[in-house]
Amino acid sequence: xxxxxxxxxxxxxxxxxxxxxxxxxDQEPYFKAQWFYRAEDIVIYKENAHFIxxxxxxxxxxxxxxxxxxxxxxxx
Length: 76
What we know:
Elements: E1 2-5, E2 14-23, E3 29-37, E4 57-66, E5 70-73
Antiparallel strand pairs: 1-2, 1-5, 2-3, 3-4
Domain BAH: 1-76
Pfam families: BAH
Protein name: BAH domain-containing protein
C-alpha cells in the first residue's frame, strides 16, 4: 500500500510504501516505510528540479515510523 505522510512544515506530504506493520515493546503501532523521492527532495538536483519529471522515484531507504503520521492512502 502506498501512503501519504505528514510533512513537518508546509511542504507537500511525503510518499512511502508500507513494507510491514508491527508494535513496539510498549505496544505502540508502527510501520516500516520504503520512501519515494521527488526531484526537489534529492539535494544534488534541488536547483534543477524543474528539469526533472514530476514523477517520484522509489528508493531503497526504509525506516520505522509511528502509525499516527499517516495522512491518507495514495491511489495511483
